[in-house]
Design a protein that fits this description.
By secondary structure, the chain is α+β, with helices and mostly antiparallel strands. The protein has a domain at 2-238: Nucleotidyltransferase, domain 5 (2-Layer Sandwich), CATH 3.30.420.40. The strands form 8 sheets. A 7-stranded mixed beta sheet has the order 18-19-17-16-22-23-24. The radius of gyration is 22 Å and the shape is globular. It starts with a strand and ends in a 5-residue tail after the last helix. The model has no long low-confidence stretch (mean pLDDT 94).
Length: 509
């Protein structure tokens, strides 16, 4: 008995085929395009998500009979905003969760709605991730679209719709949308009104493990799945990834080195903090307190596209990736990048700052610095951003049991050692972890009844030796981390002036 998981990610659409004996039978991936045509914008094409989904499913099915697939689960980014017309067609590109164009609209909402009431209802804050500011932006800048909106979905909800023809949203997308009251577990009319939309555009909310329909005959033709294959509601990508990495016990933390940088804290009780996000765990009655930095792997992708030549990338890709080349070069650079500190806020910053005006900074450049110094400083900047979240855990007296690392960036020994040194904690790399797609596949299997306990997901993965922190670097990284924090505080007013100046020149702020 086999199960398929698909993850709609920032940089890749990935699929995995697993069986009920805890074996990964096949994996596939297809690149996705992130459009950032103006400062702070982040958009993707739902049509491409569907095309990619069909491709990766066909790939993992290439050596097995489709009849052997008992169920399928989808994960994806949250809360991506997909607008459908009455025919079920996307009206425009999706506005992504790390898009930061809505500063004006965020301030409007803060001015008209009590932020303490918003926090009490949602467990979160009024920030760039929620959907109300984005819908207000659309009403202001693309008003003709508003009257054409029939339904609003998330990334994996859209794929579920294409697979089954049924309109639903999973409860984590609902929770992160900013329209959902946490304690009542329902859409809240007062919150929906902030978006200046009718609540009829919001579909029913389903829990991750619920079956929402089956693969339609037309989708069967496109994907090679058997028509009638059951589909579960799915799950947010960072939640699926954390679950598949083994975050089960209270105090377990996952560092997710994906396109964005996620940090997830497993909790057996509901804990909220307005600087962070709260999600439902895949395991019922558990929660994930989490943070998401707007850029992580996306920043490395930007760096290589701008500072590595095509010839160099082509030559090196014969045996390994350009990132491995840079890793090998970084080893000669001392901790602290010879005095460079980077602020990785190239798309503004989400948690814990919630500041769409923040911008990327390279501080301390000297004539002896080269691109390798900058690359290492970027790696360190993401580790500093993770540490900022650990400060909040400590402030809230939340114990940290173990720290795990997963996703593409976790393949880098250099990056994980940097993370261990900056955090001054052992970091365990998860092995054999295809990412969120594995969590989605297991979810489908558990819902189908092939797995008897949630803990069985750990049979699919293993763990590398821990990357131990070097005590000799503790004091040095403490100083650099303090400079990192002070740099943002010092430039906060400058970021605001820069945004106002850009806006005055007719450019998006």
């Amino acid at each position: 008995m086999n199960f398929i998981g698909v993850d709609i990610g920032t940089t890749m659409t990935k699929s995995v085929l697993v069986n009920d004996q805890a074996r990964v039978l096949a994996e596939a991936q297809q690149p996705s395009t992130l459009y950032s045509e103006h400062a702070t914008w982040a958009e993707q094409d739902p049509h491409q998500w569907w095309e990619n989904t069909c491709i990766v499913i066909r790939k993992v099915l290439s050596n097995v009979n489709a009849d052997s697939v008992a169920a399928i689960g989808i994960s994806g980014m949250v809360p991506a905003l997909v607008l459908l017309d009455r025919h079920g067609k996307p009206l425009r590109r999706s506005i992504q969760q790390n898009d930061a164009r809505t500063e004006v609209e965020i301030n409007e909402i803060k001015a008209c709605f009590d932020q303490s009431v918003f926090y009490a209802k949602t467990g979160g804050s009024i920030n760039q991730q929620i959907l109300a500011p984005k819908l207000r932006w659309l009403r202001r800048h693309e008003p003709r679209l508003i009257s054409q909106i029939d339904r609003i979905l998330g990334s994996y909800d859209f794929i579920n719709f294409r697979l089954t023809g049924n309109l639903n949203v999973e409860h984590n997308w609902a929770l992160e949308s900013g329209f959902f009251e946490l304690k009542k577990e329902s859409w809240d009319a007062e919150l929906v009104a902030l978006a200046e939309i009718n609540d009829s555009v919001l579909p029913p909310v389903r829990r991750s493990e619920e079956f929402i329909g089956t693969v339609t005959p037309s989708s069967s033709i496109e994907t090679n799945l058997r028509a009638g294959t059951p589909v579960v509601a799915g799950v947010a990508d960072h939640v699926a990834s954390a679950f598949a990495a083994g975050l089960q016990q209270n105090g377990d933390v996952l560092l997710k080195f994906g396109g964005a940088g996620d940090i997830l804290y497993s909790s057996e009780s509901l804990v909220t903090d307005r600087r962070l996000f709260i999600d439902y765990h895949v395991v019922p009655e558990k929660f994930l307190l989490n943070g998401c930095m707007a850029t992580s792997g996306t920043l490395l992708k930007w760096f290589t596209s701008r500072f590595c030549s095509a010839d160099e990338k082509d030559a090196y890709s014969q045996n390994s990736s350009i990132y491995q080349l840079l890793d090998s070069q970084v080893k000669r650079i001392r901790a602290g990048s010879d005095g460079l500190v980077v602020l990785p806020y190239f798309l503004g910053e989400k948690t814990p700052l919630h500041d769409p005006r923040a911008r990327g900074v390279i501080l301390g450049l000297d004539l002896h610095h080269d691109r390798t110094h900058v690359f290492r400083a970027i790696l360190e900047s993401v580790a500093y951003a993770f540490r900022h979240h650990f400060d909040i855990f400590a402030e809230r007296h939340l114990p940290v049991r173990q720290v795990f690392a997963s996703d593409g960036g976790a393949a880098s020994d250099v990056w994980l050692q940097v993370a261990a040194d900056v955090l001054q904690r052992p970091v365990w790399r998860v092995l054999g972890h295809p990412g969120a797609s594995l969590g989605a596949a297991f979810l489908a299997g558990k819902a189908f009844g092939a797995f008897h306990s949630w803990e069985q997901v750990t049979q699919f993965v293993g763990f590398d030796r821990p990357f131990e922190p070097q005590e000799s670097l503790r004091e040095l990284y403490d100083r650099y981390y303090q400079i990192y924090r002070e740099t943002y505080e010092s430039l906060n007013s400058v970021f605001s002036k820069l945004a106002e100046t850009r806006s005055g020149n007719g450019l998006p702020s």
